[in-house]
Amino acid sequence: MTDNFALYRVMLLIRRFEERLLAEFSTGKLVGTTHTYIGQEADAAGIFSAASPEDVVFSNHRCHGHFLAYGALSPEGSDPYRLAAELMGKATGLVGGRGGSQHIQWRNFYSNGIQGGIVPVATGMALAEKEKQTGSIVLVFIGDGTLGEGALYESLNLAALWRLPLLVVLENNRYAQTTPVELAVAGSMSGRFAAFGLPVWERETSDVLEVRALAGEAIAHVRSGAGPAALILHTYRFMAHSKGDDPRPPEELARIRQFDPLTIHAARLSPAELDAAEAEVSALLADAFSRAESDPFPVLGNQVNR
Amino acid sequence: MSTVLEALNSALLTALESDPRVYVLGEDILDPYGGAFKVTRGLSTRFPGRVLTTPISEAAIVGAAAGMALRGLRPVAEIMFGDFVTLIADQVVNHAAKFRWMYNENVRVPLVVRAPMGGRRGYGPTHSQSLEKMFLGVPGLKVLAPSALGDPGALLLAAIADDDPVLFVEHKLLYTRPLLQAGQGDLADFTLESGGELFPYFVLRPPYPPRLTIATYGYNFELARAAALELMMEHEIFAEMVVFSQLSPFDLTPLFDSLARTLRPGSGQAHRLLTVEEGTLTLGWGAEVAARAAEAVSGLRVRRVAARDLPIANARPLEDAILPQAQDIVAAALSLV
C-alpha cells in the first residue's frame, strides 16, 4: 500500500462517513445535529500522517474527520463503527451514547463542543506530557470562529511562558457557522500567535501532501522541546455548518468545489487504486453502520449526581 | 494553637511531599509573597518545579488544571478571590465536571480548585462574596468547605485524593481561627459527633433536648455557635448544630437525624430547621437544604439566615447590615420556636 493510497483512503473514509451521516438524518436514525468535515479532509489526513500514535489530541465540534484520521495511526485502524454507534446514541458508541457527535474520547483523543474552552485544557495536557517526559505533544484543533474566544489567548500565553509541547491547529474554513471571517476576525490571524512568540506555519491549500509537509515541520518543532507553535490551514467547508444553516450563495458553493482535496489527490492514484479505496471504504462503512444500527441503546444506571 | 491557615498550608506541603503527581498553580503564589492569603507560603521554596505561578488568567488556570488531571497529574489550583469563580465557570461546568460522565467513565479528573470566599473584611462588592451556591448541584463537581471543626488539612488532602473535580471553599475569616477542640472553650457545653465517609460532617448536641437544628458550614459556624450559646444562656433554648463540609452533592442524612431529635414526642409541635449561610438568600444553599428537609421530614418549620439579596457594600455599617450576623441567627431562632 503506497503512502498516497493511505492518505487518499483516510480522506475518502471521512468523506463517505460524513455523507452517510447527512443521509441518515433523513431516515431518523440520527438525532440532534452534526458538523461535517467535507471539504477539509486534507487537514486531518495530512496532519495525522505526520503525528505519532502517542500524541494527544483535543478536537472540537467538527471532530469526526480528526477522529478517523487519528485512528488511522493505530495498528487496528480507524473505527467508524464505534463513531457511528456513538452518533446513533448506542451503548457501544465511543462514549456509550453519552457524548454524541461533539463529545468523544478514545485513547489519547478527546473532543468537546465548547469553542475556545478546549484550549486551556489542551494546554494543561501539554504541561502534563512535558512533566511526565513522555515525548508526546498535544494537538488542539480550533477554527476561525474560535479566534473570538478569550480563553484561547490566555492559553497561548501560558503555553508560551511554560514552553509547552502544544500545536494549535487553526482550520480557517472562512465561516463561523454563518458569519464570514471578514465580519468576525480583525487584524491578522498569524499575528495573534506571533504576539505570544509562537512560530506559525501557514498555508492556503487543500492538497494533503502540502498539509503533511507543513504539519511535519510544525510537529517537529514542537516535539523538539522548543515550545508551542501554530499551524494555520486556510481551507473550505463544502457543506453547512451543521445541517441546515448555510446561507452561502450557490455560485460560491460551486466555486469552492474546485478545491476538493479528494480530487486533487486522486490525480496521483491509478484508476485501480481509486476503485480499491472506494470498495474498501464502502465495505467498512456498510459494516459499521449496520452493526451500529442493530446495537442496543444505553440504559441510565444509578450514577446520577455521583 | 494551630490555625485553619496552618492546617491548610501544611496539608499542601504534605500533598507535594507524598505524591509527585501533585502540582500547585495560581496567581502570586511564589515565595516570598506566598499567595494573597499565605496558604501557599513556603511551597515554592520546597518544591520549585511543582509550584507554578501564573498570569492573571483564571480560566486558563482551571482549564490547564483539568488537562493536567486528565493526563495523570493531581493539580491544586488557587483562585485568589472566590469572587473570580465566575471566570472559571465554563472550565468547571462544561469541561472539568463533564469529562468523567460525558466520556463514559473512561477518564478521571482529580483536580482541586481552592477559592477564598466571604466578606466581613471591607473588601467591597467584588472581593467579598460567597459565590459557591452557583456551583452547588453541578453534576460531576464536588463542593467542599472546611470549618474550624475537625481537621481542615485532612479535608483538603481528601479533596486532593478524590478522583473528581472539587471546589474547595475557604472563608477568609477562617484562616486565622484556631482549630476547635471537642469539650473545650465554646464547645464545652456540647457533645461533638462526627461522621461521613470522606468529607466529615459534625453534629453538636446540646446538654438538653434541642428545640431546633441549625444547619450551616464554613465560617458561618462561628456565628451559629455564638448564637447557639446566646440562645442557651439568655433564652434557655437549646439548639443542635449540624455543620457540613460537603456542600454538594447534597447528603443531608445527619440533618434529618438531627431534626428527628428536635421534636418532643407527643408534643404535637413541628420540627424546626434554621439554615445559616453567607451567600445571598435567594436560591441559596439553605433553600435546597430546606426543600430536601421538607421532603424528608413531615411537619417542618424553616427559617433561612443568609446575606440580603444585595451586592456587598464597602462601608462597614452597610456590609454588616447586608451579611448575616449572630444576632440575626438569634432573632430567626426565636421566631421559629
Describe this structure in a few short sentences.
The complex is a heterodimer of chains A (306) and B (337). With 306 residues, chain A is of the alpha/beta class. Chain A contains eleven helices and nine strands.
What gross morphology of chain B would you assign?
globular
Classification by helices and strands of chain B:
alpha/beta
Largest sheet of chain A: 7 strands, mixed
CATH class of chain A: Alpha Beta
Largest sheet of chain B: 7 strands, mixed
Query: What is the fold-level CATH name, i.e. the topology of chain A?
Result: Rossmann fold
Description:
The complex is a heterodimer of chains A (306) and B (337). Chain A has 306 residues and is of the alpha/beta class. Chain A has one domain (3-268): Rossmann fold (3-Layer(aba) Sandwich), CATH 3.40.50.970. The longest helix of chain A has 25 residues, at 3-27. Helices cover 44% and strands 12% of the residues of chain A. Chain A is built from eleven helices and nine strands. Chain B folds into two domains: 4-174, Thiamin diphosphate (ThDP)-binding fold, Pyr/PP domains (Rossmann fold); 185-336, Rossmann fold. Chain B has helices at 4-18, 43-46, 58-70, 89-102, 152-161, 220-235, 253-261, 285-296, 316-322, 326-336, and strands at residues 22-26, 51-53, 74-78, 112-117, 142-144, 166-171, 191-195, 201-205, 212-217, 239-244, 246-248, 271-280, 300-307. Chain B has a seven-stranded mixed beta sheet, sandwiched between helices. Chain B has a six-stranded mixed beta sheet with strand order 7-8-10-9-12-13, with helices on both faces. Chain B is globular, with a radius of gyration of 20 Å. The chains are: A alpha/beta (306), B alpha/beta (337). The interface between A and B is large, with 40 and 38 residues.
